[in-house]
Amino acid sequence: KSTKEAMAILDINPDREGHTLIIPKKHHDDIATVDPKTLKEMVFLAQWVVQKLRTKFGQEDIHIESWNGGAVQNPRHFHIHVCAEYGPSVPKLDEEYFLNTKKKFLS
Fold this sequence. Notes:
The chain has helices spanning 36-55, 95-106; strands at 6-10, 20-24, 62-65, 80-84. It has a four-stranded antiparallel beta sheet with strand order 1-2-4-3. The chain is built from two helices and four strands. The chain is of the alpha+beta class.
């Protein structure tokens, strides 16, 4: 799903089924550099993902986090992770996982 300023994409190394990243379309080092319109759209997308994780994946406890600098990010780039707090980890990352997960989000 996408807006004018941001997009939601599946994480390439998911912790749980449906693990999604919310990223701005323009680069921002951290939350302090994100303009209010983009941040609003990112929160809108995060809310959409939470609703899908609950209705399509049966996940109730959702974890939302963002790193703002530090050794974890090199290079720095602001984004938001949205994923289930608990639940089965992803057993096999392959094209089928990504296609099936995408179908759940878009159904």
